Amino acid sequence: MAELQDPLLGKKLGPYRIEGKLGQGGMASVYKGSHTRLQRDVAIKVISSQIADQADFQARFELEARVIAKLDHPNIVSVYDFGEEQHITYLAMQYIGGGTLRDRLHGQNLSYQQAITYTLQMARALHHAHQHGIVHRDVKPQNMLVDANNADHLLLSDFGIAKLFDTPTDTSHWNPQVPRQTPAAPELTSIDQIVGTAEYMAPEQALRQTVDARTDVYALGVVLFLMLTGRPPFRANTAVGIILQHIQTPPPAVQQLNPLVPSALAQITARALAKDPAARFQSAEEMAQALEMTQSALSSSSLAPVPQVDKPVFLPPGSAQSQPSARNSIAPFYAHPFVSDKQAGPTTLTAPPVAAVPGLRRIPTKQRSRPWQSLIPLVILIALGVASWQLFPLLHLSFSLPGGSNQTITSANFTENFQDNRRNWSMTNNGLEAQISNHTYEITVDDDQSHFPYPQDQNDLPPIFTLSSQLTLNHGNTAALYGISFNLNIDDQNHLTSYYAFVLGGDGKTYGLLKYNTDTQQSEAISTGSSTAIHNATKNTLKVSANHGHFQFFINDQLIAINGQTTTTDTSYSGGKVGLFFAGKDANFSVGTTQLSILSK
User: In this structure, how many other beta carbons lie within 10 angstroms of the beta carbon of residue 117?
Assistant: First the structure.
């Protein structure tokens, strides 16, 4: 009956005859039509008059439509034409006919193989648009169309359309006394609020910060999460409730909801969903390449779920042959780290004693940062019955991402480029000299101790975080060690009580995971090994991703196995600080970009 009542059915818009209604949203309706002369099926998007009648919309519409029409990609729905007829603004597009990805999912997950196939196609489509200066802004299953002739072929629609619906007004002058219309469904955002769909909205888009390609990467990560688990990462009864979670709540682990998802694919999903854009894939193409590597590894062997994982070689004390290291037979560190057999035999790992750690103190409980306190005013307002969509513009005043002027939510996050020493990195210590210049933190070790430079202005680590650093051994022998350290805990007497460290050896081949043993007051090796991922005599990027005592380690973006496993579990230590690790008499090191991303408090 609804179609019979639609006044456009059977009418003509330019050369197109409208034959049936395909769907309707808050901003536009979509019809199936045909070109009367070419006899070609088309999809016609008719813009809501509420939007089309806005000042300057027609000019913006024509400009944006011309740009979108130039996109030519096998996974992008083509735009054939646009125009205005009888005060009706429309777009004529390629008709696909196979329904949407949302229709196909209908609350169920896909196989991980199918999820990879679809996500890879969407990533390549997005990258093509990004190269033309177009950010989609509304990536979601509803805008992903399944080819009627090939169910494995997915096409992305509505490129740049969301930008057309964004109001040009300055939201900083929003008047909280003027009520705004609340969306009828929580997955839809109001046209005069933030353009996009709440379930797929990146934090920076929700906060009205600058959007770029990484904003679409985040939304695609949400779609991937949905395909793998059958549900979005965040759910709530209101759009503002969903958006708040996008801003401050870490997403559930994919493998907790679907244990059949390979670890590599779960890692790709988690990285795409990073709150900080700098912690995500920096382009859709980078995400596509990671998906391709994973797809290739999974198709080549069911026993190789992660691409290019290095298998370590172990040498327990007194052993002359390579064998797996048992957890209770870990070799302690002494004075000469990373002794490598010149006959290409197994690798051993030892470390020098721990030097005093200057200036690092515990933060008294009453002084510790509690980011949730900033949410108290919001909770009170909600409790008083203030409409959620009236509250939403206020969030711009309370929440921000790293690099903004307000660090309420992510105060522990940082990206250190060493322009100066505003974070108060350790500069002097007995046996260690340091300086910061030319965007580099340079370290020289003068003794046989292990040293832990760190930024002193930081709170205790939460259980979920990612730490990475670019490190170079400028000169030093094979006894040198350098890397990243985390869960550094110091007692009230300024004595080191715990740490983990992921380090490289001076031979340019070996790596190790170290742990401080509080019983013996010595460092020990959880694992050692060699890896072709290590760059000899040049920069190496080390990274650790932690999730409640489960760790994954990367060298130059390559996942490294620890004791034969791509995920290492050790819950001995928590909290503490992050820092670096250096050892090796007369060795000199350089530190480049160092980043800490906090995903949970």
Answer: 18
**For 274-283, what is each residue's pLDDT tens digit?**
999 999 999 9
pLDDT at 360: 34
CB-CB contact of 219 with 227 (8 Å): no
How far is residue 17 from each of residues 93, 94, 402, 572, measured CA to CA in Å?
A: 13, 15, 50, 69
Please report the domains of the chain, with CATH numbers, ordered by start residue. Answer: 1-95 (3.30.200.20), 98-168+175-307 (1.10.510.10), 327-363+412-598 (2.60.120.560), 373-398 (no CATH)
- Please list the residues that pair with 416 across neighbouring strands: 594
Q: How far apart are CA 237 and CA 136, in angstroms?
A: 26
Q: Give residue 314's identity as a one-letter amino acid code.
A: F
Structure tokens at 520: 């013996």
Query: For 533-591, how does the pLDDT look when each residue is reduced to its tens digit (9 = 90+)?
Result: 999 888 999 999 988 889 999 999 888 988 878 888 999 999 999 999 999 989 999 99
Ligand-binding annotation for 275, yes or no, is no
Phi-psi region of 196 (alpha: psi -120 to 50; beta: other; left: phi over 0): left
Q: Cα separation of 578 and 490, whole Å?
A: 12
DSSP H helical ranges for 132-210: 161-165, 203-206
Distance CA 80, CA 43 (A): 10
pTM above 0.70, yes or no: no
Is 573:548 a contact under the CB 8 Å cutoff?
Answer: no
Q: Rounded to an integer, what distance in angstroms lies between the CA atom of residue 289 and that of residue 599?
A: 24
Q: Give the strand pairing for 144-147 and 150-156.
A: antiparallel
Q: Strand 16-24 relative to strand 28-35: parallel, antiparallel, unpaired?
A: antiparallel
Active site residues: 138
Q: Is 559:294 a contact under the CB 8 Å cutoff?
A: no
Tally of CB atoms within 10 A around 223:
26
**Within its chain, how far is the Cα of 482 from the centroid?**
26
List, edge to edge, every strand of the sheet that includes 79-85: 12-13, 16-24, 28-35, 40-47, 88-94, 79-85
Q: Which two tokens stand for residue 366?
A: 């009453």
* DSSP symbol at 233: S
Rounded-to-integer distance, Cα 190 and Cα 165, Å: 10
Q: Give the Cα separation of 595 and 55 in Å (integer).
A: 44
Q: Could you give the CA distance from residue 560 to residue 570 in angstroms, rounded to a whole number?
A: 16
